[in-house]
Amino acid sequence: MEALYHQTNKQIQEVQSYMGNLERTDRQSVHLLENELQARTDQIFNHLERLEILASKEPPNRRQNAKLRVDQLKYDVQHLRTALQNFQQRRYAREAQDRDREELMSRTFTTNDADTSIPIDETLQLNSNLQNAHTGMDDLLGSGSSMLNSIRDQRSTLKGTHKKMLDVANMLGLSNTVMRLIERRATQDKLIMVGGMLLTCVFMFLVIRYLG
After folding, report:
1. Number of domains composing the chain
2. Angstrom distance (rounded) from CA 9 to CA 27
3. What's 58's DSSP letter?
4. Is residue 16 assigned to a domain?
5. What is the value of pTM for the model shown?
6. Helix (H, G, I), strand (E, B) or coil at 77
7. What pLDDT band is residue 43 in, cutting at 50, 70 and 90?
8. Range of the domain at 17
9. 199 phi and psi angles, rounded to 5 deg
10. What's residue 188's pLDDT?
């Protein structure tokens, strides 16, 4: 389980690194990087399913800690997938906006056309749609930033909980050791007492026999 855990954790860190390159990738290549990230994310989820099975087979004293470690990995990769989906939605919105703008700019009007009036209402509607798209993108960016901040805060909280659980586990381990030492000392004291009583009886028997 340890080897698969470390391999999965390394893959998550690699996906996090690649996610930082999405905004800097040109439009012709960005979809290739998105497909690569999606494939890596799917592979990580497959590993997590295997890790959940292995964690359930751990000894009782290590099972809870193993499940906690797997849940932490699952939490991290789930938020990476959400971030990738949000990026794709923003990209789709930008591409739709660019297509609308190019369509508007490519329109030509001539005096020989049957309809020589520029459809002002349609143009205004298109402009309104573009403004709404801008607003939607700003909202998505704001929500994405808030989500990333929340992820960092929750990750810190989970790490703190993990550390506390390990401390408790260590304390329980120490308590078990102390109890075993106490039980061993009690057994030794009992044997010493019985031996002393036997020696005392033998001594008294010899004294009485000698005096008699």
Report:
1. 1
2. 30
3. S
4. yes
5. 0.47
6. helix
7. very high
8. 1-105+158-211
9. -65, -40
10. 77
